[in-house]
């Protein structure tokens, strides 16, 4: 297997410690964005993998153990969650902040992302708290609070240069996904529609809810449309409602994710940016 190590700030001593642990030489493959190293022909028993995981996490280092022949060009679709993945915020929490209800809504969001609450129920409860809010709050959140996650732009530039299509599939709202699709030149976007009547949020979602099953179905639909298999898709997410679509991907990436998601993903990026997938697939 090929082991890729990445960090924004790791010291050489930490990399040497890991090299000693796995009995392999770490070759510096750094670019100008961050520090990256590669170790070839790595074979680790489960006990050593657990030790590697703990050592890397405590040192602020991301690692990926992948077959050496897996390259970016093997993939034809990148599917991304939006909130806390492509962007740094949970939009619904910031909308709620306009009502002075962010703590209540954020607590429900966190429980849902950890997999402790069924997503449909959690979304309905959170959206209901927004009833009566002026719809202009959505534009304020977009203008004042929405930011791309670290490494999003270089990642998307490389993805597009490789001819890979892009899908933004979110349990969030079309107000934001439509704008991100247009701004970033994404190919597809699918999310929930907030019901607005007379310029006010009604506290309801219009139409079906984009939950874990619908996220998976969306990835499958887009793959079918493109004439590819789901094994040719990279899927990125951070919460429990992303797991269904991540399970069918050729490469699943947990970004700043909850423990339940990190444990099941092919790759976890806890410290570097979204462009951390590029050295892994170089």
TrEMBL record:
Pathway named in the protein's UniProt entry? Amino-acid biosynthesis; L-serine biosynthesis; L-serine from 3-phospho-D-glycerate: step 3/3
Its Enzyme Commission number?
A: 3.1.3.3
Which CDD domains does the entry link to? HAD_PSP (cd07500)
Keywords from the UniProt entry: Amino-acid biosynthesis, Hydrolase, Magnesium, Metal-binding, Serine biosynthesis
Q: Which cofactor does it need?
A: Mg(2+)
Keyword Glycosyltransferase in record:
no
| Any one Gene Ontology molecular-function term assigned to this protein's record | L-phosphoserine phosphatase activity
Q: What is this protein identified as?
A: Phosphoserine phosphatase
Species whose genome carries this gene = Collimonas arenae
Q: What is the lineage of its organism?
A: Bacteria, Pseudomonadati, Pseudomonadota, Betaproteobacteria, Burkholderiales
């Amino acid at each position: 297997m090929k082991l890729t190590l990445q960090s924004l700030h790791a010291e050489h001593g930490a990399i040497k410690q890991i090299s000693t642990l796995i009995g392999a030489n770490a070759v510096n493959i750094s670019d100008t964005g961050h520090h990256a190293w590669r170790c070839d022909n790595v074979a680790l028993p489960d006990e050593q993998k657990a030790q590697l995981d703990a050592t890397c996490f405590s040192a602020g280092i991301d690692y990926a153990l992948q077959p050496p022949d897996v390259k970016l060009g093997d993939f034809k679709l990148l599917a991304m969650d939006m909130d806390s993945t492509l962007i740094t915020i949970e939009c619904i929490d910031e909308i709620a902040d306009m009502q002075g209800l962010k703590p209540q809504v954020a607590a429900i969001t966190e429980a849902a992302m950890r997999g402790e609450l069924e997503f449909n129920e959690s979304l309905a409860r959170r959206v209901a708290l927004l009833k009566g809010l002026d719809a202009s709050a959505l534009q304020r959140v977009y203008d004042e609070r929405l930011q791309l996650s670290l490494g999003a732009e270089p990642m998307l530039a490389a993805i597009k240069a490789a001819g890979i299509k892009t899908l933004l599939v979110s349990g969030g709202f079309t107000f934001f996904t439509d704008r991100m699709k247009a701004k970033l030149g994404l190919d597809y976007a699918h999310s929930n529609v907030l019901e607005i009547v007379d310029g006010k949020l009604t506290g309801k979602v219009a139409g079906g809810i984009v939950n874990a099953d619908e996220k998976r179905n969306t990835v499958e639909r887009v793959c079918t449309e493109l004439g590819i298999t789901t094994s040719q898709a990279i899927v990125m997410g951070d919460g429990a409602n992303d797991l269904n679509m991540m399970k069918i991907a050729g490469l699943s990436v947990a970004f700043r994710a909850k423990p339940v998601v990190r444990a099941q993903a092919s790759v976890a990026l806890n410290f570097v940016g979204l462009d951390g997938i590029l050295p892994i697939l170089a």
